[in-house]
């Protein structure tokens, strides 16, 4: 290899390294922006998550955020995906009971606790807090991933013959999901009294759903 080839390879590597560094810097900056937006989301609620307020918290111009996320909806999508990760992590926390009835009860309670602990994320993801934001295909896939534990326990119960076969797994998941969301939405809207009263209604709803799917004694 002559000196010209060595020089050419070196220049190529410098260019690649620069491109990698630039990409890495962009990803780091995106993460910092999302972290700032997530802090606003948790501390002040979804209405506080604006490009202007995020840029103020970051100490940068709004142009930088627009260049990274295009608009507020782009930032909302990233927060939505982060919320899906939080929900997936929460669903991994409860013990996986051998009894599918108890397992579903555990997952249902975990979902309630997620709505309480991460209420701002919940409102962004499921409560229409960002009126112009509609989850795209990637976001919907993130939701499905977050719900994997629920899908798995329902599918397993069907395979064991514990759940009658007139409904497919997807339909059952949607019924469960919609019913539990309904209680949380009513609570957030002030229709179910204080948190203790709302939680009692939620637990009763969860018990009715699970017992209708698998008619066994629920403790």
Automatic annotation (TrEMBL):
This is TetR/AcrR family transcriptional regulator. The keyword Transcription regulation applies. It comes from Paenibacillus baimaensis. Keywords: DNA-binding, Transcription, Transcription regulation. Residues 27-87 form the HTH tetR-type domain. It comes from the Bacteria. Residues 50-69 bind DNA. Pfam families: TetR_C_33, TetR_N. InterPro entries: Homeodomain-like_sf (IPR009057), HTH-type_TetR-like_transc_reg (IPR050109), HTH_TetR (IPR001647), MT1864/Rv1816-like_C (IPR025996), Tet_transcr_reg_TetR-rel_C_sf (IPR036271).
């Amino acid at each position: 290899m002559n000196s010209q080839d060595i020089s050419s390879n070196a220049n190529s590597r410098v260019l690649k390294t620069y491109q990698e560094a630039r990409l890495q810097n962009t990803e780091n900056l995106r993460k910092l922006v999302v972290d700032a937006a997530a802090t606003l989301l948790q501390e002040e609620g979804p209405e506080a998550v604006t490009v202007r307020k995020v840029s103020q918290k970051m100490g940068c111009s709004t142009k930088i955020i627009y260049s990274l996320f295009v608009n507020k909806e782009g930032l909302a999508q990233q927060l939505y995906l982060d919320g899906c990760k939080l929900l997936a992590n929460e669903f991994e926390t409860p013990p996986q009971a051998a009894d599918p009835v108890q397992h579903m009860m555990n997952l249902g309670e975990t979902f309630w606790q997620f709505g309480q602990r991460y209420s701002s994320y919940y409102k962004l993801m499921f409560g229409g807090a960002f009126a112009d934001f509609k989850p795209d295909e990637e976001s919907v896939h993130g939701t499905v991933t977050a719900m994997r534990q629920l899908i798995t326990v329902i599918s397993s119960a069907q395979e064991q013959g514990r759940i009658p076969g007139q409904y497919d797994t997807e339909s059952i998941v949607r019924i469960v999901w919609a019913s539990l969301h309904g209680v949380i939405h009513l609570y957030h809207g002030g229709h179910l009294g204080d948190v203790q009263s709302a939680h009692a209604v939620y637990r009763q709803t969860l018990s009715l759903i699970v017992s209708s799917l698998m008619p066994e004694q629920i403790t």
